[in-house]
Amino acid sequence: MFNTLSDRLSESFKSLRGKGKLSEADIDATAREIRLALLEADVALPVVKDFVGAVKERARGAEVSGALNPAQQVIKIVNEELITILGGETRRLRFAKNPPTVIMLAGLQGAGKTTLAAKLALWLKAQDKSPMLVAADLQRPNAVQQLQVNGERAGVTVFAPEPGNGVGDPVSVARAGVEEARRTLHDVVIIDTAGRLGIDEELMAQAAGIRDAVNPDEVLFVVDAMIGQDAVNTAQAFLDGVGYDGVVLTKLDGDARGGAALSIAKMTGKPVMFASNGEKLTDFDLFHPDRMASRILD
Ligand code: GDP
Q1: Pairing state of beta strands 101-106 and 284-286?
Q2: pLDDT tens across 39-69, in order?
Q3: 95, 98, 101, 104 alpha-carbon torsion, rounded to 10°
Q4: Ligand 1 in contact with 277 (CB < 6 A)?
Q5: ipTM score here?
Q6: What pTM did the predictor assign?
């Protein structure tokens, strides 16, 4: 995803090689290159401005002595600033003191929520948790069945509404799912909710209704990193309409330019917690800002 950005950034450091000292002109020229590289990668403009401003300021104040030459010094600063905009520390899931921990997924249709639900469940199972999936996406035809299939692949229980059992609306399904998890001693409940192709009020109201009914420990906003700048707009709309604690970036294996991944934490003030990078259930992990920064600067 970050190939072009990586190439452009390493290109922008080239002119600094062999320099004994950073001049103001060197810093300006490099900052301009970095700015262009980020803009071309679709990073949101306010993020680019802050980023370049911080790099320039720090480069000006950088110590010339020491083990690092000017090029290495600038790379170190860019690395640290990348980690900062990506959210700094890895943010881990918070588990409830009294199980079950309730995790609600929200996001647009096609973002990868249903897939993510199963990936997260498998990942939790590997940590000796006993997750249960709840199919509260009653909007998209096949969503319930898809969650059941994915749940089976992950080897986890799926709670789904059955015709005639009295749980017909998503809020009731979510509530009944949490109750069922408590009764059957599952310690984590992951609730898959409906998305639409675009933002609409009914979607937000439904997600907010589920949130109010089950009082989740974590609401995760799931977003397709391939949709570029739109990811940031969608993230903001969900933040206003539903609210969430963290972001999951999906489809990081794609060939989009990566700007969404670089903008979203800074623009929303919410950490990216997980990254999904493929269609296999194991293509999933905690999001590590430092590793992502290293990958970009590799
Ligand atoms: P939902 O509508 O939000 O529940 O989205 P789905 O889970 O149905 O995912 C939509 C499509 O994206 C499916 O074809 C998934 O296989 C695919 N998908 C989900 N996550 C990833 C990912 O990380 N990488 C890739 N390449 N495809 C993904």
Answers
A1: unpaired
A2: 999 999 999 999 999 999 999 887 666 778 8
A3: -120
A4: yes
A5: 0.98
A6: 0.93
